[in-house]
Amino acid sequence: MLYLIGLGLDIRGISLHGKKILKSAKIKKIYLESYTVEFPYSIKELEKELKIKVTEANREFVESEKIVSEAKENDVALLVYGSPLSATTHISLINSAKKQKVKYKILYSGSVFDAVAESGLSLYKFGRTTSLPRWQKNYKPTSFIDVIKENQKIKAHTLLLIDIKLDFEEARKQIIETDKLFEKEKVIACSMLGIKSRFFYNQIDKIDAEKIKFPYCIIIPCEMSEIEEESLKLAI
Q1: Residue-level pLDDT at 87
Q2: Which domain holds residue 14?
Q3: Strand, helix or coil at 235?
Q4: Is the pLDDT of residue 88 over 80?
Q5: Residues 181 and 190 sit within 8 Å (Cβ to Cβ)
Q6: What is the pLDDT of residue 164?
Q7: Which of 81, 95, 196, 201 is the most buried (most CB within 10 A)?
Q8: Which of 60, 92, 110 is the last residue in one of the domains?
Q9: In terms of pLDDT, which residue wins out, 184 or 21?
């Protein structure tokens, strides 16, 4: 059996069902997917909180789908920050499990996709989500700007997920370098959602980068309703 278990956003965000599964004598190994997010706590703190021992699973291991093969013989669990099916990699694991006739169970938890509503913006008014990858010397993808502009055409907000280890100052530089028109764009920086949630609403070049703590994301809002505007004012 393969268990995909969401940890939620806070160190105590895992469901009671998830805790029960992890304490089960059936579980032979517990993996922690550790490459898609900047954790707001250490692995040791997580182990102490849940009273378990975890093995870090890097991108290569997860994408190799070896864990599905292991689940043929033993009950194994993969812990995922937030909710387990937010990333396409984890959906691929489920597809692989189905093809190989491996039983699986998904235990959901809170994620950035519902926590952004604390900003006051309606989830119904968000368009496509996109990601801002950390640029390398010879790799500077800019497709995220196209998604933002497409969302703006239909008056939809954009949730911009940020690559691991990419701090707000660098993220801001990459956005402005991609399109100078966004230098004066008002955005909402969401810091430590679900943990010590803080929201900063201003032109992107005026937000104090030192106040934005990992994990964080950015919302590029479009036209807001009166309720959204009022809720955002109360949130910041």
Answers
A1: 75
A2: 2-110
A3: helix
A4: no
A5: no
A6: 87
A7: 81
A8: 110
A9: 21
Do residues 118 and 195 share a domain? yes
| Rounded CA separation 44/41 (Å) | 8
CA-based nearest residue to 144, from 182, 198, 199, 87: 182
Please give the share of the chain, as a percent, with pLDDT higher than 70: 100
Say which residues have a Cβ less than 8 Å from residue 194's Cβ, sequence separation at least 6: 8, 9, 10, 13, 110, 112, 115
- DSSP character at residue 79: E
Q: What is the pTM of this model?
A: 0.91
Per DSSP (E only), the strands in 47-124 are 55-57, 75-80, 104-107
Q: What is the CATH number of the domain that holds 151?
A: 3.30.950.10
Phi, psi of 93 (to 5 degrees): -65, -40
187 and 128 share one domain:
yes
Contact 212, 168 (CB under 8 A): yes
* 61/33 Cα distance (integer angstroms): 9
* Structure tokens belonging to residue 199: 């929201």
pLDDT digits (tens, 9 = 90+) for 152-200: 999 999 999 999 889 999 999 999 999 988 888 899 999 999 999 999 9
d(CA 113, CA 131): 13
Q: Which of 110, 140, 157 is a domain's end point?
A: 110
Q: Which residues of 200-227 are buried (b: 16+ CB within 10 A; e: fewer)?
A: bbeebeebeeeebebbbbbbbbbebeee
